[in-house]
Q: What sequence folds into this?
């Protein structure tokens, strides 16, 4: 099963936020070995792990569509 994590924090530095989301995404490693990523944008950070079950080769996480602003 895939997993996602994220937070909103106006007080932390960008370096601290990157460290936090990297750590949060790493704790989800058991949720999926087939893909991972993190995204930060100032005060917001998102991370995910992907487990391929149906579309093993060409599937990607829909999370990147939302993160790139293409919704």
A:
């Amino acid at each position: 099963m895939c997993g996602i994590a994220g937070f909103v924090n106006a007080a932390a530095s960008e370096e601290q936020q990157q460290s936090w989301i990297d750590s949060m995404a790493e704790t989800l490693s058991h949720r999926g070995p087939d893909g991972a990523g993190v995204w930060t944008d100032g005060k917001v950070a998102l991370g995910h792990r992907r487990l391929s079950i149906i579309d093993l080769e060409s599937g990607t996480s829909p999370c990147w569509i939302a993160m790139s602003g293409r919704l």
